[in-house]
## 1
Amino acid sequence: MPEKNAYPVQLIQPDGRRVHDRVHAPLVADIDAERLRAIYTDMVIARRIDTEATALQRQGQLGLWPPLLGQEAAQIGSAHALRTDDYVFCSYREAGVAWCRGVPPEQMTTLWRGVAHSCWDADAVKMTNPAIVVGAQGLHATGYAFAAHLEGAEIATIAYFGDGATSQGDIAEALGFAASWSAPVVFFCQNNHWAISAPVRVQSATPIAQRAVGYGIPGIQVDGNDALAVLAVTRQALIRARSGGGPSFIEAITYRMGPHTTADDPTRYRTAAELELWQRRDPIDRIRRLLEREELWDSDFEQEVAVRSDEVAARLRSATLNMPDPQVSDLFDHVYATPHRLLAEERREYTAYLEGAQS
Ligand SMILES: Cc1ncc(C[n+]2csc(CCOP(=O)(O)OP(=O)(O)O)c2C)c(N)n1
Ligand SMILES: [Mg+2]
């Protein structure tokens, strides 16, 4: 096995052979055959959830869906590093992480169908709901982590965000605060090379992970299409955070193989050649090759994973199609915890308008 310590961290080569890395391989030494197969299974399920939700949007059943295609290793690898008492603060793209946290597929599309303001009970799974305000969750993760630290809870938080989000003030402020106050937060940047149509090169003149260093936060680059490497570096960062070592920054280098959302057409701004290059680096193929090389692969297993992922997709589809439509007046509920004069007035006005429109 080749000796390799160069960055980005990699533990599985594209052909499925292991990389011997004395620093990072020991962090995943306990990942046995069963766990490797579980990671692979979760990656296939995440892709299946994504395919189904994308199809539902194309069939007019969802207003929007942000595909995760290509980012399965970054999401599942990091989610497998988390403990159930850690808290996840996500963006809109982390359906794979949600699956690993135990979010039932029945709850994954409510927001995207427009029948509720959120999808799941955040506290039940210790993961926030899809967040549209780019970068805001970095602050939320830092605040929660700092509070946990003050209370002496030995947990960590993880903030998932994209390469584009690193240009947001919210992320800059979160990094500054987390470093100064030693907040137990892991900043997990999925550098998928694009922020809608803006390429990553316009976000940062240096590798993104290096920017963390300026804040006094260790930054590491990892091959984001290598689930094992992602698991190793995320574990390291979480252990550091929980044990009082402060924040860390991970840049997982990956690629968004689909559109930004179902409302986007990426052929207008990126080349077919670039997409093909990354299709050859498919994260699911990578772990599959490792399983094959280590004789952990057979057609029964393949069949079992296919059946399980189809079941998850069927649950997601059927729940989405059966979600009751909310009353329009529900829009006014849950805005404030207590009654609000202006809102009551707006509700009256809108109800009168609807009644007028019907007569
Ligand atoms: C504060 C804010 N500004 C702009 C937008 C519009 N917007 C939505 S997603 C996005 C790009 C984010 O790119 P990146 O952080 O790389 O995440 P990715 O979508 O690639 O996962 C932008 C500009 C927004 N939702 N919020
Ligand atoms: Mg991006």
## 2
Amino acid sequence: MSKQSKGAANRLHHPEPEQRAQHARWLASLFADPASLASQTAAAYSELLDEVLLDVAVEAHREAKLGLAPPPPPPAPPPPRPLDPLPGARGPTDVFGQAHPPSAMEQITCMKCGRKVAAGRFAPHLEKCLGGGRQSSRQATRRGAG
Ligand SMILES: [Zn+2]
């Protein structure tokens, strides 16, 4: 390809706005006459496209009517059900069937002093047992203020 024709090809693919407008006016003039080659080519292409689309639509309709269409996707499975409560679990249970939180009346052995404490009272007991909690924080505040 020579330098000149390369430049012409480039101008064809990336024409200036005025050149594009000129090209559009030229195309419009071609389609203005229904007997022109451009008009008849576009009409033939349009007819072919309509024909192909109609074929696809008729075939899809026939398949649906005769039950030849692929079956619809199966319905979604039901959501998983929580497990039954474990034997001995009291109160509300989680999805694994475990009582959570444990019943407040359940006895828990303190790992510090070894006493058995009701589960509902275990947190305050542990605070006292470990020397923290509200009492010691109040004492610390009093110490800091006084
Ligand atoms: Zn304790």
